[in-house]
Amino acid sequence: MLKKLSFLLAFVFCLFHCWTAMFGAAAGIGQKAIHLGLVLIIFFLDYLAKEDRKWYLKITDLFFIIASAGSLIYIMSIDSTIDLRSGVVYTYDIVFGVLLVLALIEATRRSVGTSLAIVTGCFILYGFFGQYMPGFLAHVGMDLPRFISIVYLGTDGIYGTAIYASASYIVLFVILGAVFNETGVGDYFTKLASRAFGRFVGGPAKIAVVASGLFGSISGSAIANVIGTGTFTIPMMKKCGFEDEYAAAVEASASTGGQIMPPVMGATAFLIAEYLGIPYFDLVKAALIPAVLFYVAILMTVDLYARKHHISGVPEDELPTWKELGKTVYLILPLVYLIISMSVLKMSVTKSGISSILMAIVCTMFSAKNRLNKEKIVKIIKGSINGAKPVAIACGVVGIIIGIVMGSGLGFRMSSVLIQVSNGNLAILLILTMVVSLIMGMGVPTTAAYLMLALLVVPALKQMNVLPLAAHLFIFYFGIISNVTPPVALAAYAAAGVARCNPTKTGFFAFKLSLSGFILPFIFVYNPVLLMQGSAIEIIQSLITALLGIYSLSCALEKFAFKWEISQVERVALFVSAILLVVPGTLTDVVGFLVLAAIFALKLIENKKKVLCNYK
Predict the structure, then answer these.
(1) What is the Cα 568 distance to its own chain's centre?
(2) What is the pLDDT, as a whole number, of residue 218?
C-alpha cells in the first residue's frame, strides 16, 4: 500500500513538472514548494515502506513525512502575505520552519551523506552563536525568528535560487535522462561509440571514453554513469588486455567528465547559468572547448597506453554494424533536436527540455523494441524521482547554508580574507580555490559543492578581475574532478566495484587520466579565449596549441611518445613542452612546439639507426 502511494506521488511529481513546463510554472512559491515538498514526502515514504525497518525508525519516518507535508501546505497558504509582513515572524512560521529544516537535514544525512548534514549543522550553530566567533567570522548572531525569516521565509534561503533551478530546469532533464535510458536512446550512443572506435588500438577503452561522455552529459551523475555504461565497457576492456584497475579508471574518468560535456552538462550547469544570468546555451557554447580537450586528453593517454602494451581493438564480428545502427538512426534525433532548439530556435531551457521528452517518445513509437509500454513508463517514473531526490534535497539544504552566509555577512567578508591570504596574487588564489573546491567536492554532490563555493569563493575571484564565467566554471570543474581525486574518489570506487579490483589503485589511475582536468581551469582563467571569448582566429590558435600541449602531457604521463618509449630526460622535456603550449602567448607556443618537434625528430632518427643496425 505504501509503495503504491509512493509511486502515485512520484507519478504526480513527474506530471506536475511536465505540465508546468508546457503551460507555465505554478505562481509564487508554489513551483518550488511543491517540488521540494513532494521530494521529501516520497523520500521518507520510501523508507517507511521498507518491510524490515524497525518500528521506532518507522515512527521517525512518519514524523518527517508529516513535517514535510505540513511545511509544504503552510508555506503555500501564507505565500501571498509574506511580502506584506515587513519582516514580522509568527509562531506558526517558526514551528513549520523548524520542521522543514529538521526534515531537510535528516534527508541530507540519509541520501547525500553525513558530511553535508554535519556542515549544515555547523553553519546553523554559526548563525546562532556568531557573536562568540573570532576575527572575521564574528557577527551579531541570530535569534530563532530571524533565522526562520531568512532561511524559511526569505528568498536567500531554502526557497532561493538553488531550489528554483532544481524545480524549473534540472528536474526536466532528469526526466529526459530517464526517458532516454528506457527508450534506448542512451544505449544507441554506446553502440555508436562502439562502432566508431571499437576496431582501433585500445578500442574498448575508447568506446568507454566516448560512450561515457555522451551518456554522462545526459545523466549528470558520475556514479550513475559508471554503473550505467561501466557494466558494459569495463568487462570489454578487461577482455582485450587492459589491467583491471586501469579499465575501471578509464570508465571513472570518462564518467566524471560527463558533467562538463555539452549539451546537457548535468544538473549544476543550469545553476551556473541562473547565477550568471546568461542564456543556458551561451554557457554550453563556452564550456564546449574545455570539455572536448578533457576527453581528447583521456583518449590520447588511453591510445598511448594501448600502443605501449600492444592492446588491440575489438574483433569486427563483435561490433554492431553500420547497417544495424542505420535502422535505428532516429534514436539520435531527440538529442539533435535538443541542441537545435536551444541554439538555432532560441527556445527556453524549459521548453527545450519538455519538447525533447516528447520528441523522444514520438521517435521511439516506430520501434516495438523501443516503444514505451507500461513497464518502461513505471521505470521512467521511478528513475525520474530517484534522480531528482538527491539534487532537490542538496539544493534545499544548501539553501540553509546560503541563507546563513548571506544573513551573517560571511559571504562578503570571505572574499577579502581570501585575497589577503593570497597577498593579491591570482595564481595563489586559484591554487587555494582549487584545494577548497576539491575538499568541498569530496563525498558531496557537485550541485551542493558548487553552490557553497559560488557563494564563498567566486566573489574573491571576481575582485581579482577574473571573468565571471571563468570563475564559476573553475570551481565547477574542481568540484567534479574530486570524484576521481583520492582519498575520496567516489566514481573511482564505484568503477572498482564493477571491475572487482583495488579501489585505491583505481583512484590513482583515474587521477592520472584526469590530470588535464586540473590544468584546463587554470588555462581558461588566464586565457578566456578557450571559453570562446575572442575572435575565430584566436580561438582556433588556442585550441590547436592546447591540443598539442595535452598530447605532450599525455606522452609524459605514459612515458611513451608517438610510437616509442622515451627516456626520463625526454619525459621532463615533454612536461615543459606541455606547460609552454598551454600557457597563453605566441612565444611560449612556438617554444613548446619546437620542443615537441625536436623530440619527435630525435626519436625518428633513433629508430632509423636501430633499423639500420638490425639490417646490418
Answers:
(1) 36
(2) 65
**What amino acid occupies position 39?**
V
> Cell numbers of 80, please?
501571498
The pLDDT of residue 219 is 61
Residue 490 buriedness (CB in 10 A; 0-12 / 13-18 / 19+): buried
Q: Is 2 exposed, middle or buried (0-12, 13-18, 19+ CB in 10 A)?
A: middle
- Closest Cα partner for 492 from 213, 239, 250? 250
Closest residue by Cα to residue 183 from 375, 464, 447, 385: 375
Model confidence pLDDT, tens digit, residues 517-550: 788 888 888 888 888 887 888 888 888 888 898 8
Contact call for residues 594 and 537 (beta carbons, < 8 A): no
Cβ–Cβ under 8 Å, residues 393 and 106: no
pLDDT at site 613: 65
Residue 185 has φ and ψ, to the nearest 5°, of -65, -45
pLDDT digits over 38-90, tens only?
A: 999 999 999 998 888 888 899 999 999 999 999 999 999 998 888 787 678 89
SS (H, E, C) 94-141: HHHHHHHHHHHHHHHHHHCCHHHHHHHHHHHHHHHCHHHCCHHHCCCC
In this structure, are residues 507 and 284 in contact, taking their beta carbons and an 8 Å threshold?
A: no
Nearest CA to 545 out of 602, 590, 478 is that of 590
| 375 C-beta neighbours (distance < 10 Å), count | 9
CA dihedral 464, 468, 473, 479 (to 10 degrees): 60
Q: Please state the length of the chain.
A: 616
